[in-house]
Design goal:
five-stranded antiparallel β-sheet; globular; 16% strand
């Protein structure tokens, strides 16, 4: 018995007798319909004013940004691939309203309108606040590295830049002199003929020298800003492709990247604040994060939790000034060991020394007082006891690390009282319970962003990178709002989006 299979519809090989709507091919509950409604909430007037009256009519900015956000939500980041989807994917056709902008149009819009993307992100936060999808009850801040549009193979150290600049300058001078001799000799011999090979070679080397000088100048400006008045180490590097990116990484995996910071609300993991940093660590990021939160949400959160990477005096001071109820994982050296000192062979850490704010001293486990012996202009402090007392102490082998027999030193800064306050706070069970929620608030968001396929930037320069990351964060928020609508947390009411009181039951509401 032969097996029968379904045959193709008759319409497959012939034209339909009546016109049909291509979007009928989409499921009635396809997300593109919802995204179109959400995109209508965007105010694009700020970027519309930058368009000229003269010339060919341009695509509406709302259309372009809708295409970009929808593409990012589907894990499509290449402008060429986005153009292709607008031709082949029915859902993209619906978002694009059957338009198909050239990939150059999409790419240029992404490069030029970074500030507008930052405004788009703010609008998503305002929308989430209006829909009560964000409460700012508990915010968690974290950072993650995203690859710059560059390569560590397209970079050069400061020492190499100086060598190459000198070598190219010498070669160019020699080529210019050789070109002059060739011109003179050919003028005598051939009258009408001149040499063209040398000028072409000269042109190439001059272009290369200009790139070397530009990169060298950018590196010098960067180092002057970071370390004013100090000599530049020859090993310092800079990228030719993106001079504003920085070498970042860990465990031997280093590349040019940017440090992306996000503040995430605990209710629905909506990003309520974000900024781009050029710092490889997070020790200076809290103040900027708080400013970003105020800029987007108009107020600071009730609680803020951050991991150990933010453990620094500057971050603690910023939190103290903001009066935010903060929870920071303390440094390993800030945690006293639970095992008794007597009979243990473990090394003593800073937390085993008791700080006295009143007289600005430390007391070691052996009872000796360590006084401040040095304080630098940036607030760093060094405390030290007596080497004679340390030599007679039974804990000396577990405390002093100096090969010369010097007394134990404690290094900290002028924010030590704030460190001690946070140490005491984080030792309580209530603080531990609040901080334990951090990993379920912010860490999954970076996972969601990277799992969507976004791992590096398509543009170059901090300003443009900040714009693209705003686009990424706005896309994330749209996806969260759409999910809330599909779940019934938000519903259409009188032609507007509104919270569904029958379903919405987050804590504190």
């Amino acid at each position: 018995m032969s097996i029968s299979f379904k045959s193709s519809p008759l319409e497959f090989n012939q034209h339909l007798l009546f016109p049909s709507n291509i979007f009928d091919l989409l499921a009635k509950d396809h997300e593109c319909y919802l995204y179109t409604d959400l995109f209508q909430q965007l105010d694009t007037s700020a970027v519309e004013s930058s368009y000229k009256v003269k010339g060919q009519n341009a695509y509406h900015p709302r259309l372009i940004v809708s295409i970009l956000i929808y593409a990012y939500s589907r894990g499509v980041f290449s402008s060429r691939q986005i153009e292709r989807r607008c031709r082949e994917d029915v859902s993209f056709m619906y978002i694009a309203q059957m338009n198909c902008p050239n990939f150059r149009v999409l790419s240029d819009f992404r490069k030029v309108h970074g500030v507008f993307f930052q405004d788009c992100f703010k609008q998503t936060v305002k929308l989430a606040l209006a829909l009560k999808l964000v409460s700012l009850g508990h915010i968690s801040l974290d950072g993650s590295k995203f690859k710059a549009n560059s390569s560590k193979h397209k970079a050069m150290s400061y020492g190499r830049l100086k060598e190459k600049e000198q070598a190219l300058s010498t070669e160019i001078d020699a080529l210019i002199e050789q070109a002059k001799r060739c011109d003179q000799e050919e003028d005598k011999a051939y009258k009408e003929r001149t040499g063209y090979e040398i000028p072409e070679d000269l042109k190439h080397k001059q272009t290369r020298l200009a790139q070397i000088k530009a990169a060298k100048k950018a590196l010098e400006q960067r180092e002057e800003q970071l370390n004013p008045g100090k000599d530049i180490e020859d090993k310092k590097q800079i990228s030719f492709a993106d001079t504003e990116s920085r070498i970042m990484g860990k465990k031997g995996n280093f590349n040019y990247a940017y440090n992306a910071q996000i503040s995430v609300d605990a209710d629905l993991q909506i990003i309520v604040g974000q900024h781009i940093s050029q710092n490889a660590n997070d020790k200076q990021e809290v103040e900027l994060a708080l400013e970003a939160l105020l800029d987007t949400a108009d107020r600071l959160p009730d609680r803020l939790s951050v991991d150990n990477g933010y453990w620094s005096g500057d971050n603690l001071q910023a939190l103290e000034a903001s009066s935010t109820d903060a929870y920071i994982a303390t440094d390993k050296g800030e945690k006293a060991h639970k095992t008794p000192l007597d009979g243990s062979d473990r090394k003593l850490v800073k937390a085993d020394f008791k700080y006295h704010e009143a007289d600005n001293t430390f007391t070691c486990p052996g009872g000796q007082v360590l006084k401040m012996i040095r304080e630098s202009q940036d607030g760093k402090r060094v405390y030290q006891g007596s080497s004679e007392v340390c030599a007679d102490c039974p804990l000396q082998s577990r405390c002093c690390q100096s090969d010369k027999g010097n007394a134990r030193t404690i290094n900290t800064d002028n924010k030590e009282p704030l460190r001690q306050q946070m140490n005491s706070k984080m030792a309580t069970e209530s603080a531990k319970a609040i901080y334990s929620k951090r990993k379920t608030i912010v860490e999954p968001v970076f996972g969601q962003i990277k799992n969507s396929g976004f791992r590096g930037f398509s543009v170059r320069g901090k300003e443009k990178v900040a714009g693209e990351f705003s686009l990424v964060c706005a896309t994330h928020n749209f996806k969260k709002i759409a999910k809330a609508i599909f779940r019934g947390v938000v519903r259409p009411e009188f032609g507007h989006l509104a919270t569904n009181p029958a379903i919405y039951s987050f804590s504190g509401k």
